[in-house]
Amino acid sequence: MRTRLILALWGLAASLPAQDELLARIWNGVQEAQAKHVSGCGKITETRTSKLLAKPMVFRGKFCAEGMARFSLDYTEPEIVRIRFDKDYLNVTTGGGAGSGSGSGSGSGRNTEVMDVGGNVRRTQAYFSKENSIENLKKTFQVTPGQDASCYVLKLVPRSDNFRRRLNYIVVRLDKTQFLLRSLEVDGKSGVNSLFTVEMTSLDTRIPASTFEVYRPR
Known about the structure:
This protein is α+β, with helices and mostly antiparallel strands. It has one domain: outer membrane lipoprotein receptor (LolB), chain A. Helix content is 21%, strand content 42%. The chain contains 4 helices and 11 strands; from the N terminus they run αββββββααββαβββ. It has helices spanning 16-36, 118-129, 133-140, 161-164; strands at residues 39-49, 57-66, 70-77, 81-86, 89-95, 110-116, 141-147, 151-158, 167-175, 181-188, 193-203. An 11-stranded antiparallel beta sheet has the order 6-5-4-3-2-1-11-10-9-8-7. The chain starts with 15 loop residues before the first helix and ends in a 15-residue tail after the last strand.
């Protein structure tokens, strides 16, 4: 199970002026949406395909996010997987009882992997939130912006070796009205393609702190 949803954005140039204008419109819309909405919850479906799979695997679940510092994801089908991120720590819980509580390796058939990812997250956020963040993105990804009737579309092809070793491309789809994520396609070097489709069910509602509770090593 992939535990990190990959986020990034930027560049190709056949008709540069038009693409730059569209890219700026999308970028500005995303920044405004992030500033406007402090939290959100919804449903997520991951469809995973590979030449090694006889048929696609479909995972369904629910998620909540609070700013860029807290995230929860509960997969309920075909197996229970519980993912929590709160500022510094990422917990991934599988097995029986994964749907509730916190801890490590406790509970009936339950196993929790605890990762300290706060430093990496903050470095990434700082890199992409500075004034020259668009230029940073262009250096890291070759991006083709586009649009259809309902969504803006960004296709990202890695330039940097760090991403190129793991990814073939990423496709991000954002709705045109609120610039909210509608789908994320990740095509990996491993031969696995994952398409995450997102349906927002609430915005800016108060989310209980327990939703993001993580186990922190003492």
